[in-house]
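Look over both lines before class:
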Amino acid sequence: MILDGVRDNTISYIFDKIIVKEIWDALDQLYLSSSEWRNMSLQEKLRSIKMQKHEDIYPFLTRIKEV
């Protein structure tokens, strides 16, 4: 069932696992590390957004939402 829900490019991370717990741990480690990286990247992008001189609040908020 797990393999049916996994993308093709992810199978290489779990093909040698036999026990379901090993599969789950491998997937958890794979996606946890990428979500941590994504979180740090988004935080950095949000920190770098500055409101421009004479910029209206609505375009500024739109840029934040786009991130």
Remarks:
- Residues 3-66 form one domain.
- The radius of gyration is 19 Å.
- Residues 6 and 27 are 9 Å apart (CA to CA).
